[in-house]
Amino acid sequence: MMMKVDSANKHGILLDMVQALTDLDLVISKSYICSDGRWFMDVFHVTDQLGDKITDKNVICYIQQAISASRRGSTQLNTRISKEVRSNHASTEHTTLEMTSTDRPGLLSEISAVLAELKCRVSSAVAWTHNTRAACIMHVQDDSNPGSIMDPHRADQVQAQLVTVVDAHHTNHQRWSLRLTGPTAGQTHTERRLHQLMMADKDYEETTYGPKGYETVVTIENCREKSYSVLNITSRDRPKLLFDTVCTLTDLQYVVFHATVSSKGRVAFQEYYIRKKDGHTLTSEIQRQAITQCIIAAVERRVSHGLRLDIRSRNRSRLLSDVTRVLRENGLSIARAEIGTHGERVVGSFHVTDARGNDVDGGMVEAVKKEIEKLGGMVLVASESSSNWLANGPSSNNENEEERPARLSLGTLLWSQLERLSSKFQMPNSQPWKRNKSSEFVL
Predict the structure, then answer these.
(1) Reading across the β-sheet that carries 133-142, which strands appear in turn?
(2) ACT domain: from which residue to which, for each copy (predicted)?
(3) Mean of the pLDDT values across residues 310-336?
(4) Between the chain's N and C termini, which has fewer beta carbons within 10 Å?
(5) DSSP secondary structure string, 177-232?
């Protein structure tokens, strides 16, 4: 499906559009961007996670509504599943825990155990590791009184206990951060905030390298005729790549005037014509080196390392603590994690290695599966890269419908729910296109 978006231009509008599409778990295969002057125009070629064309008119109208909401700076959608769509935004019903630390096996398990002992329930969490660094954002509720932790003394107690755990594994010269914040209006999108945390933690300065075949190449040239800097990025193609790149450029205060994004096989090509927000181009080698390091880090933070385990369970207290304990006790280290609550069910995706960062032994996986089943959950093993499994589809057409969502990413689970529910809601204007004074959508 091709989407054309015309709108009044402002700094950050490109990120708003890309963020809205990725939150709906759409795959952007190509994009053409132009934002010279006061008007913004972008063309997106999008499919669902299985690479299929989107044809349902109600689903198209829902996408249109999400894009329109993002242009207005709003996250309010008039459908029964709007809360699930906004899962990547900081919740107004939870306390938010943000942490950066030196990466080590068992870190997420220890944090989860402390929260469980303090009667706090984790409703969602996202954790990334990159270049020996780790960052995590958790949305936490008071278990005895669902909602954010309202008592400031209790919040201070929780933070103090967490600080003790994290600080115990760091020497004086090692950096780390941890803070607990209450709900506030206008909080940053969770994955964008993770990028900001890791950038502030300077994960891009480390000298370690990822697995072979994950190399990202960045080149920068100056277009003197138009006073642009031209940024070219070649990397492995994967979901949310465009979001990660645009997010970083926006937070580095660069403005994208023109861009072309495409892919061939497993390789993605991105070209951006950019300037600093103050109108200057990249003139010094220090500036070029800085943006190169930050872009490479942004691209590689989300790269899948290790084996992916999808875990589904009934929502209950201590669940994350129990699951991460099982992984730690069986010698598994978490390279990346995403956990979300969907009604009475919790779905988690964990990318795991052994304690040394090597491939996981099959015996370890079987032991984990058995112990998770004893806890009332279910484990399904995906390929090294989630996108590989999604591209190939399920191995059997007779796969139980109830089991299928657990094998998908959290976003894909949401998308499957959206398609099933799409016939149950109608928007005021159900035409496959809409135009008003300040924006235009052509799908």
Answers:
(1) 177-181, 95-102, 133-142, 120-130, 332-342, 345-354, 307-314, 377-381
(2) 96-177, 308-387
(3) 94
(4) N
(5) EEEEE---TTPPBHHHHHHHHHHHTTGGG-----STT---EEEEEEETTTTEEEEE
